[in-house]
Here is the input.
Amino acid sequence: MTTTVKAHEIGTTRVSVVALDRSQFEIEVVTDATALLEKMETIAGEPVSASTDVSTLQRRLETLGPIFQRRVTVSFGGSAVQPTLRWSVAPPTATGGSPIATVRLTGDVPPAGGTLTWKYSWTFTSYSLTDRRGGHAATTEWLEGDTSSSSLPVEAATAPESRLKLAARYVVLGFTHILPKGLDHVLFVLGIFLLSRRVRPILLQVTAFTVAHSITLALSIYGLVSLPSTIVEPAIALSIAYIAIENIVVKDLRPWRYALVFAFGLLHGLGFAGVLKDVGLPPSQFLTALFGFNVGVELGQLTVIGAAFLLVGFWFRDRIWYRARVVLPASVVIACAGLYWTLERLNFIA
Here is the structure.
């Protein structure tokens, strides 16, 4: 069976430590119900369900609970415990989205106590583990799939993460959203790079793109602007195709290019916001995390531009054959990728 890899897959899973004291613990996992069930049924050797009915999905997830337990580890002082599972499935939050599964893992803390360590091997993308116990500021740790968390003490909450550490963590998250996980954004930035042979016009376009997506990212996170992902994602793909096609039909940079890149930046900002909404932002240091993520995105984009300039632009930009042998073939590839993603995200391609 072929599984389609979508853009912005990062963060579709969120984990929260809801309660943790000397006697009991409660951990909440929120994730894509259909994707999780598909993995569980594959592991169990059962036919993959096609149903998206929330009641059917919940029954199947409850039935396969023991399979879920195999790839989840809750440990105290290095000793694993077997939690009790409580499942619920909610309808999609947006048109064309997937039902959302929430599973609460509860159990008794061993008499010896110790520190809690968490491991979740049902995803291989980054996800957030947030300590939401009452009485202290929420703290968030970013984990790659199949890696163990740092230890959470039972008797006292973890100290809030410093602003510098939090900002650095979100800078890394923003950067990795571009490199290596954001192929669509990488191709858009390369499309910007290809039309101009000079550094200044390229940087002006990147600046316009940066300002624009920073605006919609902030507005969307604050709930002032909102569009469903079923509109945003195909439109982002179409913007990639358009930039590349313009590179093919226009030989020189035109004044409208800056306005166009700015407009597309507004659109891409909604895509970035979708990622942050999925993974969550720590309430106590909201602006710090938002700023760090944005910085990481910009560093990722500048890395793409720098690499393209060093590998191609610096050496060949003044050659008479540069447009015919570099700009046009690369733009054709980018345009085809953008059009393919557009059709895929509109569900014309399975």
Q: What stands out?
A: The chain has a mean pLDDT of 86. The beta strands are 14-20, 24-32, 72-76, 79-81, 84-90, 100-108, 115-120, 127-131, 139-143, 152-153.
